[in-house]
Write a structure and sequence with these properties.
This protein is an alpha+beta fold and about 400 residues long. Helices cover about 40% and strands about 20% of the residues.
Length: about 400
């Protein structure tokens, strides 16, 4: 079983791990929130994946209890994969509260300064206060990295990956560098002068592997799991194979129930599916209506834009066929009613947020509630879809 963190502080990027699982035909995964980790409900998983988001929010949500649970997980031989926020979280040199308990590996980051220069662009994404100074970001968008280390990783060669606020890692001790930044790709936005990018980013570590007791810790500044960059997208597969996890978890082809044939939908299930499709369609229309809105919401240390609302809704819309299969073969079960209610609430919340933007109101509270709701909505939706996929293999 693989665990994907989708709790407080997680951005939309946790869904990229779902895309990896879909690509690899792996159904043995589940979504975790802070309470799951704090209460040790990760003992039965082989790998824990934490992606981007508000690292301070994640650290506060997990707290010392969560940090101790992570350490116990690694002592038992678990594998940790952290990208962006998930990388900052576990570095020992991130030495302030609430990060201090998460001292899993000897590493720090180079993109820190007591007084970084003014940004050339994207000021709202440029820096986050850290102690007496700031974590600041040198570039935003696709960057080129070069893989090194053992042959499974080195075999990826040079590839483009997405950098959206992740660290330039400074490895210490026995850490092994797996990837280095080589430069910016076309479409990447430089946020500082080119000379500073050459001095700090280029040649810096983009990914490392370290050891904690009996477990392994992989951290990466860029989002290798981002599906928009297919070559880097293979990295997680390589790690799962290297750690002998892939063969244990990949879906086999034996039927797990039913005869695989679609059945005509009848009764309440048919009605609920129709409700979900209608409300999700309404949500798409309302979200698209905010596409050009010049509004930003600062939630914790993370800045969100209307395009993130669009992303969540489109991500679910693309997976409606999987939900339909779940309804047809009966795996959606009693939670279909709950999903219909959540979808209706999503549609209503998005329309209300759009109305507030158009009226010029302060929509921070509405946005905060919506993004939390979208995360919970997506988790339930994907759990029902995954149930249907397990039945069809």
């Amino acid at each position: 079983m693989i665990g994907i963190y989708a709790g407080e502080g997680a951005s939309h990027s946790w869904t990229w791990f779902v895309s990896v699982m879909e690509k690899l035909n792996i159904n043995s995964y589940r979504f975790l929130n802070g309470e799951d980790i704090k209460k040790g409900r990760i003992k039965d998983i082989l790998a824990l994946l934490i992606g981007g988001g508000d690292v301070e929010g994640i650290a506060r949500e997990l707290g010392e209890e969560g940090a101790e649970s992570l350490k116990a997980f690694l002592r038992s031989g678990g594998v940790y994969f952290g990208s962006c926020a998930g990388a900052y979280l576990v570095m020992r040199e991130v030495d302030l509260e609430p990060y201090r308990p998460f001292d899993l590996i000897e590493a720090g980051f180079a993109n820190y300064h007591p007084s970084p220069p003014p940004p050339l662009s994207l000021p709202h994404k440029y820096k986050v206060r850290y102690g007496e100074g700031f974590v600041y970001h040198l570039a935003y968008g696709p960057v080129r990295v070069g893989m090194e280390g053992p042959s499974p990783f080195r075999g990826l060669g040079e590839c483009a990956v997405a950098l959206y606020g992740g660290p330039v890692i400074v490895p210490r001790g026995q850490s092994q560098v797996l990837a280095r930044y080589l430069g910016l790709e076309k479409g990447c936005v430089a946020m500082v002068e080119e000379a500073l990018i050459r001095d700090i980013l280029v040649g810096g570590a983009a990914g490392i592997r370290a050891w904690y007791s009996g477990g392994k810790v992989y951290i990466f500044g860029p989002h290798f799991e981002c599906p928009y960059f297919p070559q880097g997208f293979r990295l997680l597969e390589i790690i799962l194979r290297e750690e002998n996890i892939y063969d244990l978890l990949k879906s086999d082809k034996r039927p797990r129930g039913g005869d695989g044939r679609a059945r005509p939908l009848r009764g309440p299930a048919r009605e609920r599916l129709r409700d979900i499709k209608r409300e999700l369609s309404n949500a798409r229309v309302a979200a698209r209506g905010m596409e050009n809105a010049s509004v930003l919401w600062e939630l914790g240390t993370k800045v969100w834009e209307p395009e993130k609302v669009i992303y969540f809704v489109e991500f679910l819309w693309q997976r409606l066929p999987g939900l339909e299969r779940g309804v047809e073969n009966g795996t959606a079960g009693e939670r279909l009613e709950e999903l219909a209610e959540m979808t209706a609430s999503t549609s209503s919340r998005i329309r209300e947020l759009r109305r507030g933007i158009e009226e010029g109101r302060d929509t921070l509270k509405e946005a905060e509630g919506l993004f939390r709701h979208l995360r919970e909505h997506a988790v339930l939706f994907l759990e029902l879809v995954r149930g249907s996929e397990m039945m069809n293999h």
